[in-house]
Amino acid sequence: MSTAEIGVDEYLTFVERDYLAGYIARGGTSVKLLCPADDTTRDRLAGGLATIGDGFVYAEVDAVTTRVHLIDQVFTAVARQVDWIGLAASVVQAALDHAGFPAPADLDGIDLAATARHHDVDAAELYRSVRRAVEQLVLRDTEMSHEFRTAMLRLCQERLGRGDVSADERETVVGWLHGERLPAADLRRVGLNTKVNRYNARPLLLSLTRWLRIAGRSGLVLRLDLDRLAVTRRPPAGLRDGFYYAKAATLDAYELVRQLIDAVDEIEGLFVAVQVPPTLVHDEARGLPAYTALQMRVADEVRDRRRPNPYASLVRIGSEPSEVI
């Protein structure tokens, strides 16, 4: 007898109501392994996750196009889907409020001169006050890594529009976040000394979730698609599409998920939907049973085979409605 499945629409409604709108929006973090029953359910689940949640930023990382066993590749894939300039603008707006000079309601974008005229203050003095407020919001928040704070400060300074950071320097920071190869001299010019790598990527990912909330967002919904891990043999060269994974790389991908699960108390405002095919749930050779450290965290030895439990760490998703606990 197979374990009961929950309908895809029911599960999306459940996640939005019981996780995103409450627990995650208040700063919690959850990592769920989701096992869609078929390709149609898989596509509906992926499309639905991209639309639920008020104020959340959505990103997806597919094992076909990203080396999901490498945390730096995962971070840069997420970073390429984030509106870094928009987030920096939101933080500058928050700094204006913090400094006591909120922007006029009819002002489109950030214009310190117009804001100074609105409040009848000297533009240079307002700039100094807002810059201090930005530095307080960014540099003093030690929950974010030093490199991340440096990068975000540069983006905010560019949004202030006073020439402290040029458009080229802004693009250097964004390119660094995207994992692009950049001249070392350009990185040093904006206060960055190392590229995104396996040592700093995890702190950067944790910092991003904190930054989203500073910028007024509810959090991050991340879909991690591991379907490709089930492919055991690469097709002929002319038929290959994206990345394929040896068993060692597959186990490294499971370890990355395990680390995310164990770090939920350290991360703020993150919902991770790890999508796996049914094959990987039971396959002894390269599925979850092959990596005990992860299997023990998501195993469902005690379960009701007639009714699904949407709160479980591993949830089986079907296309039909079901009776939910």
Describe the overall structure.
By secondary structure, the chain is of the alpha/beta class. The protein folds into two domains: 6-70 and 217-318, 3-Layer(aba) Sandwich (Rossmann fold), CATH 3.40.50; 84-189, no CATH class. Helices cover 47% and strands 11% of the residues. The protein contains 13 helices and six strands. The chain has helices spanning 8-24, 39-49, 71-79, 84-99, 112-119, 123-139, 146-160, 167-177, 184-189, 201-214, 247-262, 278-282, 292-298; strands at 6-7, 29-36, 56-62, 219-225, 270-275, 314-318. It has a six-stranded parallel sheet with strand order 1-6-2-5-4-3, sandwiched between helices. Helix 7 runs antiparallel to helix 8. The longest helix is centred in the first third of the chain and has 17 residues, at 8-24. The mean pLDDT is 92.
List keywords for this structure.
globular, Rossmann fold, alpha/beta, 6 strands, six-stranded parallel sheet, 325 residues
- The structure class reads alpha/beta
**Residue fraction in strands:** 5-15%
**Poorly predicted regions:** none
CATH class of the largest domain, anyone? Answer: Alpha Beta
Choose one word for the global shape. Answer: globular
Helical coverage, percent range: 40-55%
Spatial strand sequence of the major β-sheet: 1-6-2-5-4-3
Q: Please name the CATH architecture of the largest domain.
A: 3-Layer(aba) Sandwich
Number of continuous helical runs: 13
Counting structural domains, the number is 2
Major pleated sheet = 6 strands, parallel
Cα-based radius of gyration, to the nearest Å? 22 Å
CATH topology of the largest domain: Rossmann fold
**Tally of DSSP β-strands:** 6
Mean of residue pLDDT values: 92
Q: How far from one another are the termini?
A: 19 Å
Order of helices and strands: EHEHEHHHHHHHHEHEHHE
